[in-house]
Amino acid sequence: MTDARTGKQRADQVVEAAEGLFAAGVMSHSGHANLSARLDDDSFLLTPGFVRGLRPEQLATVSLDGQVVAGRLRSVSAEIIAMHSTVYRARPQVGAVIHTHSPAATAFAVAHRPLPCRTEPMLRFGQAEDVPVVPWGPRGSDVSVRGMAEVLESRPTTAAVLLANHGLLVFGPDPAATAHLLVAIEESAEAELAAAAIGGAVDFPEGAVEAVRTAIARAASIARVAS
User: Which of 14, 111, 181, 224 is most buried (CB neighbours < 10 A)?
Assistant: First the structure.
């Protein structure tokens, strides 16, 4: 079981991540989103059906089998419990999941087109491959969950998926890192759409992933020496 202090820290992190997404301007007009943070092997915190003006005490605690353990959820949020728990079950290392209807990324979801990795921020924040598309199914349905599980199994290194005709789902080690990747993905989607008007985006040269990883490791080493 997670102690109260750890639970409060996780809730604060979720609120900060939500605020950061609004500040970055990557939310849809409605501001729709849901965020979660893993508490332990069996449970996670989940936003209650809204995220604008979110407060830590408004998050609910949910078990991986779909039971609300503490707090309250609106019916619309209850539908997405399975979406989050599917990721936590498939990826034990994942500590946070964020779902938005970010406009540019959602355009790729509506078009059923994977989002290519052609911007350096996507590489740096953990998505060094195309963002795959999960086939459409009613939100929270067995069809939707099964499709998501199959994509996660077939793409073991992806940190995001596009939900066909729906939106974007991103996951990472913690709420802050997940939010940073989500912003990078939305910016990349915007760049892809803009580049189409001037001839189309171009892939990275061969070896780009390794070059970026080397640069990150070198910078981290310098930072450790300086400290």
Answer: 14
